[in-house]
Design brief:
- The chain is an alpha/beta fold.
- The chain has one domain: Rossmann fold.
- 47% of the residues lie in helices and 15% in strands.
- A 5-stranded parallel sheet has the order 3-2-1-4-5.
- Helix 1 packs across helix 3 and helix 4 runs parallel beside helix 5.
Length: 137
C-alpha cells in the first residue's frame, strides 16, 4: 500500500510517535510524506520515506495528483486545529475532497489513524489493490 504522511508543524511530534509505535506495520508499505514531516519521521524511526515538496511549495499538489491517478491508498494527515487556518486552507480542503471523490481513506487525528493502521494490518484495506488499474508497458 502507498501511504502518505502529512503533519502541521505542531503535530509532527505526534506523527513521529505514531510512526514509532506502528513501525512494524508501516515498514511493510511504501511511505511518502511532505518534506519536513518525512525528514522528521525518517530521523526518528529509520523508516524509508519518499519525500514530496513541502506543503507550501506544492507538496499538497503532488499528493493531489497522485490521488487523482489512484496511486495513494491511505493518507494520515494531522492538522493543528489551534493554528487557526489549517482547515480553512484551500489546499487541505482540496486534498480532502479528492480523497472523498476517489475513495482514499484519510485520517486527520490520532484515533482514526490508529484505527486505519490496525485495519491495514488486518487486511481491511486490501480492497484498494483490487481497484488499481493494471499498468501496461
Amino acid at each position: 500500500m502507498n501511504i502518505v504522511l502529512m503533519a502541521d508543524d505542531r503535530k509532527k511530534e505526534l506523527m513521529t510517535q505514531l510512526c514509532t509505535a506502528y513501525k512494524s506495520i508501516l515498514e511493510k508499505h511504501s511511505l511518502s510524506a511532505t518534506a519536513a514531516t518525512g525528514r522528521v519521521i525518517t530521523e526518528a524511526t529509520g523508516l524509508d520515506v519518499s519525500l514530496f515538496l513541502s506543503r507550501k511549495q506544492g507538496g499538497h499538489q503532488q499528493v493531489d495528483a497522485r490521488i487523482s491517478y489512484n496511486e495513494i491508498d491511505l493518507i494520515l494527515m494531522f492538522l493543528d486545529p489551534g493554528a487557526g487556518d489549517s482547515w480553512d486552507d484551500q489546499r487541505v480542503m482540496r486534498t480532502l475532497r479528492l480523497c472523498d471523490q476517489y475513495n482514499v481513506p484519510v485520517a486527520t487525528n490520532l484515533a482514526s489513524a490508529e484505527m486505519m493502521i490496525l485495519g491495514l494490518q488486518r487486511g481491511d484495506l486490501d480492497w484498494r489493490e483490487m481497484i488499481k488499474p493494471k499498468k501496461t508497458l
